[in-house]
Design brief:
Layout lengths: L21 H10 L2 H4 L20 E3 L2 E3 L17 H10 L14 H4 L4 H11 L17 H15 L13 H11 L5 H4 L17 E2 L6 E2 L14 H10 L13 H8 L4 H12 L3
Antiparallel strand pairs: 1-2, 3-4
Helix pairs in contact: 1-5, 3-5, 7-11, 9-11
Length: about 280
Amino acid sequence: MWILSAPRPLGPDALPAHQADLTNGALMYNIGGCLNCHKPDPANASAAADLPSGGAPLKTPIGIFFPPNLTPDLETGIGKWSELDFLNALERGLSPAGSHAIPAFPYTSYALMRREDILDIRGHLMTLAPVKSEARPADIPLAFILRRGVGLWNHLGLSDAKWQPDTQQTASWNRGAYLVNGPGHCAQCHTPRTLLMTLDETRAFAGAPSLEGSGNVPSLRGLIERGRYKDAKDLISAMQFGEMLGYDKLSSGGMGAVQTNLSKLPEGDLQAIADYLVSLK
């Protein structure tokens, strides 16, 4: 069992020959909501609120995590991480030292992404101002044993398969499907889980109990049929403007930060996301 739970890192041959596209990296950073979870610790008075220096508590069913510093600080951030280190973090949920991340970090969705897009995110992060922010250990019982056990869980919850386009759908629909399922990792909150805490793909996007322990995350299916939105254009306006234009609940709770990120996307990508979501019946 110990052998089966061992880390399975990617090797150097997994790295594509790629020059980081910083514009795309910023877009992927926003759709991924990196700042939402890696926001600064409120106690770190020197940390800028718009930089992902980490440390703010993240409540989960198994305890409290303190997401780490994503700025390029050499001592406390990712400044010394190689491209392969970053790829292993997002595709395999592994730290540079080889320890397993708990799947509160949505690497099972990021693993679907094109590697070029992952490296573009790294390129964007490396342009940010470095912030010194020491990592805080997670407040969970038996953390070391749990992290090693994630290696076993990965055999069920982590796929090696990359997202593939549906040749029966339009280019816009496929773009939306990619953004929602990969970098957007929407399924992590909007899809219910099995007893083993893997995503229940038979009920994808059908709504789920909140991972923070109270309330429910709504279904993304039948948004038009249920009267949530009039049409795809109405959904695009909601993603752009949220409650500022009367789209109640879209900017409340955890969706507030998500809607803020969505509002930064080009209209073509919002159209693609809307095309995909309204197709979920």
